[in-house]
TrEMBL record:
Residues that coordinate or bind substrate: 92, 98, 131, 162
Single GO MF descriptor: L-malate dehydrogenase (NAD+) activity
Residues the entry annotates as binding NAD(+): 42, 105, 129-131
InterPro entries per UniProt: L-lactate/malate_DH, Lactate/malate_DH_C, Lactate/malate_DH_N, Lactate_DH/Glyco_Ohase_4_C, Malate_DH_AS, Malate_DH_NAD-dep_euk, Malate_DH_type2, NAD(P)-bd_dom_sf
Active site: 187 (proton acceptor)
Family statement drawn from the similarity comment of this UniProt entry: Belongs to the LDH/MDH superfamily. MDH type 2 family.
Domain (Lactate/malate dehydrogenase N-terminal): residue spans on this chain: 6-152
Annotated protein name in UniProt: Malate dehydrogenase
NCBIfam families: MalateDH-SF1 (TIGR01759), MDH_euk_cyt (TIGR01758), PRK05442.1 (NF003916)
Pfam families per UniProt: Ldh_1_C, Ldh_1_N
UniProtKB keywords: NAD, Oxidoreductase, Tricarboxylic acid cycle
Catalytic activity: (S)-malate + NAD(+) = oxaloacetate + NADH + H(+)
Domain spans labelled Lactate/malate dehydrogenase C-terminal: 156-322
Length: 329
């Protein structure tokens, strides 16, 4: 057996973590031969609840789970981690605006960026889930200058999964028949779910669906507002589907994408597709066996796509500037 992978999950007493920890500890994400040392961070007030989560993990009797470290101490939590799954943040509830969330959460990611810089392994892989996810990842990266920018990502796989499932349901096929949907930009209602290059059983989605009006209107807005629809129905933010998407994101990052397929992740823009350098912007990537991802290049972008991609970039620039102001105040 190889050396345990040290995986930190923040917000470990919260609802996403409750759906996530079992899959990670069971081996579904990093592989059936990879022992896991699980570090669980939450705030001091949640230590009682976290104790219960730890008891349940122990009671699952999972052979790969070699160690569980529950803590509210940030320096202990980030020490020597290989993977950081940064979930811990306030979720939006009904009636809350995105701006309220940015103010409440961005400072958490400044502090955690500094902790990554100081305590984590320099090749740590980070996925930010706490909202506003792209901007929080940007802040984390900024305050961890000793870690390569490409090691910071944010979760937009939930949006990809939502888009894939909407197309599959429209046509009446399994979601696994739909490939190469793209999520461009922000994990927010300005994101652009793009099926121009997507295929369904090998044929272009646009040719199979044959309804441009549905694609350009109902499909896009359903995916863009799905998170808000779940909040309205559940009175709580999505958790089971978010946990599944985190697993998909990490599994592909560690094990690679299948030949001819790509996935969407929020990553540091290198200027590709005219997106401002340095922003954390969701793009299509291919991942090789070496766990390094490359942006899929050369995709055609028509005027409709360009305007959608620019609108979500504009929102990300505004969020970044507001976040920097909050952090520097
Ligand atoms: N990117 C996505 O696709 C996506 C999807 C769903 C939810 N989210 C976001 O994920 C976040 C968590 O959602 P949830 O439903 O699990 O929320 P939750 O309220 O159930 O749990 C959040 C947990 O984080 C903890 N926490 C708060 N501040 C912390 C800190 N500084 N350090 C460590 N832990 C801290 C809280 O005590 C709580 O236990 C929210 O911001 C939500 O909006 C993102
Ligand atoms: O706050 C929101 O509108 C979205 C919550 C979450 O990120 C989701 O996509 O389900």
């Amino acid at each position: 057996m190889s050396k345990p992978l040290r995986v930190l999950v923040t917000g470990a007493a919260g609802q996403i973590a409750y759906s996530l920890l079992y899959s990670i500890a069971k081996g579904d994400v990093f592989g059936p031969d990879r022992p896991i040392s699980l570090v669980l961070l939450d705030i001091e007030a949640m230590m009682g609840v976290l104790k219960g989560v730890v008891m349940e993990l122990i009671d699952c009797a999972l052979p790969l789970l070699t160690e569980i470290i529950p803590t509210s101490d940030i320096s202990m939590a980030f020490k020597d981690i290989d993977v950081g799954v940064l979930v811990g943040a306030m979720p939006r509830r009904e009636g809350m605006e995105r701006k309220d969330l940015l103010k409440a959460n961005v400072k958490i990611f400044k502090q955690q960026g500094q902790a990554l810089d100081q305590f984590a392994k320099k090749n740590v892989k980070v996925i930010v889930v706490g909202n506003p996810a792209n901007t929080n990842a940007f802040i984390c990266k900024k305050y961890a200058p000793s870690i390569p920018p490409q090691n910071f990502t944010c979760l937009t796989r939930l949006d990809q999964n939502r888009a894939q499932s909407q197309i599959a349901a429209r046509v009446g096929v399994s979601c696994q028949d739909v490939k190469n949907v793209i999520i461009w930009g922000n994990h927010s209602s300005t994101q652009f779910p793009d099926v121009t290059h997507a295929t369904l059983k090998g044929k272009p989605v646009l040719e199979v669906v044959k309804d441009d009006n549905w694609i350009k209107n109902e499909f896009i807005s359903t995916v863009q507002t799905r998170g808000a629809a779940v909040i309205a129905a559940r009175k709580l933010s999505s958790a089971m589907s978010a946990a599944k998407a985190i697993c998909d994101h990490l599994k592909d990052w560690f094990h690679g994408t299948p030949d001819g397929q790509w996935v969407s992740m929020g990553i540091t823009s290198d200027g590709s597709y005219g997106i401002e350098k340095g922003l954390i912007y969701s793009m299509p990537v291919k991942i090789g066996a070496g766990q390094e991802y490359t942006i899929v290049q050369g995709l055609s972008i028509d005027d409709f796509a360009r305007s959608k991609m620019d609108a979500t970039m504009k929102e990300l620039i505004e969020e970044r500037d507001a976040a920097l102001q909050t952090c520097e105040a």
